[in-house]
Design goal:
heterodimer; A: 11 helices; B: Rossmann fold; Alpha-Beta Plaits; 2 domains; six-stranded mixed beta sheet; 14 strands; globular
């Protein structure tokens, strides 16, 4: 019995994407592990010991969810932006464009590839955190849900970035000048309760804050924001970016002349 | 039913360049069709629109009666494209390139590998299936693109300069392979700058110039329009000069090379009579210029003068 052609096309893209980042694991999986290990040593052990508990838990345990999610965000975004832009740059995106695979299958394939890398790297970083901290698992379903939703959202961001990118410089601008500041200001290393009321309100415009808090809830049972709101906001962002990405593909912006 | 039908197809690029000014064209099912034209004539734009790589400005494209606009998936299922530029992932093994392409068409992996084996064997690439594409020679890369375009068994195969930069031996083996594909019933549209290739392979043709079709006929019909033909004769013994040759167009370009131009009604017999009468022996003879090339240049010149 034959599987649905859409399913075969989707699976082909996902397997290709997973093989791509697995083949270059020294560039994709290893660096975030080293970076996060350094964060745990410097911020967790050396400085964290002097900070004291936050939100009722040791500081090193408090920063685990944020650091894991930071790796998830960076990697899911990087996977799609680099893979799709390379496909555009080397013209092998045409293999997909001439095929009968619908746009939603192409999008789903690339996003799933990004989710696969985000979840893989996140899981490895979470495993590394066990060496330095004692992360709990307050809610496994919530942890997994946030893992997947966050990866999907930032994979979508990477996809849109790749569509508009005209050079390799263009695929580094957003990660360097937008994602990194938003991640650091998204409550990875601190609770927004430490901020003045004005900056607390400003922080609420940062989408990463919602995800970090939802993930922190999944691991530690702590959150600065009600978890329902955090998940709703994430789903709204995912829906909006999915619709926008499909529109770009349908119009052929950045990929057709 | 037509394999391909274009109706008033227009494309204006941002910046106002009119690449296609409303071309209409029909290609019969099973045909081997040449789409010719000088650089920048609009051939690649037309092919890009048919294969969904370029957005049209207006007009209709139908493949086997199905509209590209309304039924893009059905159209793409029938279509195989061998583009002019290499457009595969150079780091991917060539077997994977074929299997992935089949996968995008919904063909399960096991069947995809069977087909990949068949086409890679036919194109003498099976031994290289684990090699990344970047390690292949230019001719092998061209053959890889043909195998990739066939892996989903298209009914219409578009070959955009498939033999560009390929040596003559490989080119001839590719011609034989493509002829075989056409004999199996696959409609083929070929664009090429080697007019000898088009003349040898194609039954019908269209010539595009400046975004317009200036000729659309059968190869035989077009070639009958050739009023005169030029030949180069290698003489057995060099000549200092030619005996009087009234009524014949002859030119001694070198002491041992005689150029002859004959019109269709006249034929070559009067030339050979003249040579026999004067004891001039011919060692060998060849066309000075490919016949289609001669017509092609004439048509382009006429179009340029008209515009």
């Amino acid at each position: 019995m034959f599987a649905s052609p859409y399913w075969v096309a989707y699976r082909t893209i996902v397997i290709k994407e997973i093989r791509r980042f697995s083949r270059i694991w020294m560039q994709t999986v290893l660096p975030p592990v080293i970076t996060t290990t350094l964060y745990f040593i410097i911020f967790g052990r050396l400085i964290g010991g002097k900070i004291g508990p936050m939100g009722g838990v040791d500081y090193i345990n408090y920063i685990v969810p944020g650091l894991v999610l930071m790796a998830v965000i960076t990697n899911s975004y990087a996977n799609v932006v680099s893979s799709f832009y390379q496909a555009k740059f080397q013209h092998h995106i045409e293999e997909l464009l001439v095929s009968p695979a619908p746009h939603w299958v192409i999008l789903a394939g690339f996003i799933s590839g990004g989710v696969a890398r985000g979840v893989t790297v996140g899981s490895v970083v979470l495993a590394v955190s066990c060496v330095f901290a004692e992360p709990h698992l307050h809610s496994i379903p919530m942890t997994l849900l946030v893992f997947v939703l966050t990866s999907a959202l930032f994979a979508l961001g990477g996809f849109i970035n790749a569509i508009y990118a005209n050079s390799f410089d263009d695929i580094t601008i957003i990660p360097n000048f937008v994602l990194t500041p938003l991640t650091y200001l998204g409550g990875v290393f601190y609770s927004i309760d430490l901020l003045s009321p004005f900056w607390q309100q400003v922080s609420l415009f940062n989408p990463i804050l919602y995800m970090v808090n939802a993930f922190r809830y999944g691991l530690l049972g702590l959150s600065d924001i009600p978890v329902g709101i955090a998940l709703t906001m994430t789903l709204i962002f995912i829906t909006a970016l999915t619709l926008f990405s499909l529109r770009l593909l349908t119009k052929g912006i950045g990929i057709k002349t | 039913m037509h394999a391909l039908s274009l109706k008033n197809l227009k494309k204006t690029y941002p910046g106002g360049v009119e690449a296609l000014k409303g071309i209409s064209l029909d290609v019969a099912e099973g045909d081997f069709f040449a789409l010719l034209g000088p650089n920048g004539a609009g051939k690649s734009t037309a092919i890009g629109i048919i294969s969904s790589l370029v957005n049209k400005t207006s007009g209709d494209v139908k493949v086997f009666g199905r509209s590209l606009e309304r039924e893009p998936e059905a159209v793409k299922r029938c279509l195989g494209l061998v583009p002019q530029e290499f457009n595969f992932n150079p780091f991917e093994p060539i077997g994977e390139i074929l299997v992935n392409q089949a996968g995008y068409h919904g063909i399960p992996r096991k069947l995809a590998w069977e087909r990949a084996e068949q086409y890679l064997n036919q194109l003498e690439l099976w031994d290289k299936r684990r090699q990344p594409a970047r390690k292949l020679s230019g001719g092998m890369k061209r053959r890889l693109m043909i195998a990739r375009a066939l892996v989903h068994r298209p009914r219409l195969l578009i070959l955009d300069e498939p033999t560009a930069g390929v040596d003559i031996e490989i080119r001839r083996s590719m011609w034989e392979f493509i002829r075989g594909i056409n004999r199996e019933g696959v409609t083929i549209i070929l664009t090429t700058h080697y007019l000898e290739e088009a003349e040898n392979l194609c039954r019908n043709l269209a010539i595009i110039n400046q975004g317009e079709i200036i000729e659309h006929s059968s190869m035989r019909e077009l070639l009958t329009r050739l009023r005169s033909e030029s030949f180069v004769l290698n003489l057995k013994r060099p000549l200092e000069g030619l005996p009087p040759h009234e009524g014949l167009w002859l030119k001694l370009s070198e002491p041992g090379l005689l150029e002859v131009c004959v019109n269709q009604e006249q034929g070559l017999n009067p030339v050979f009579d003249y040579l026999n009468r004067n004891g001039i022996e011919v060692a060998s003879m060849r066309n000075k210029q490919n016949r289609l090339e001669q017509l092609f240049i004439g048509l382009l010149q006429r179009d340029r003068e008209a515009s």
